[in-house]
Amino acid sequence: MAAAARRPAGATRAAKGKTKPPVLDPVRLHGLADAAAPHAPDTFDGLRFDGESFDGTDLQGSTFSECEFSSASMMDTGLRGTRFLDCRFTGLYAPVFRAPRSTFRDVVLEGSRLGSAELYDGAWDSVHVDGGKLDFVNLRSSRLTNVLFSGCLIDELDLDGVHATRVAFRDCRIGSLNLSGAVLQDVDLRSTEFRSITHLPGLNGATVDEDQLMMLAPLLAANLGLRIEG
User: Among residues 195, 122, 199, which one has the least CA distance to residue 156?
Assistant: First the structure.
């Protein structure tokens, strides 16, 4: 789809000076062929994997283009450097999801259950993570552009060294959030709950709501060395 046809997810294009929402291309899959899980790296186009197990398979460096994964299992699958282009995941199950240095472009991941998700050094563009439970998400040193997390429960989110542009968290619950070395631009945390934040200066470039600001006030004061006395 041409860039000019893109529209922000769930909103009109933001006015100047406002937090810019992520711009997502819809994932439309037609005429897919049913396929079994592959056993070796390759290029895969226009396939549907329904209930297939990729467990323990080495698929490093593969490319999946216009593919659908429904109730697939990817426990300890080797996905280093794998590219997912115009793909949809529904009900993905992976206690250990190994996909460092991978590329996700125009991808929807919905209703999935991931334990330890190793996604560091990756590149995400136009990605929607919708619902699901994620225990530990390691996105260290990744580049995130036009990414939406909605209705997710994330225990630990590691954004150490991340470059994030137009990333939004809507109605999510995050346990601990690590922003050490993060570079943020138009990152929207409003309507999301989080229990703790590592490296408060990493919030530069993020947007919070008034309730979140009140919650952060003691942490911000401590970070600045302020004493609050009645």
Answer: 195
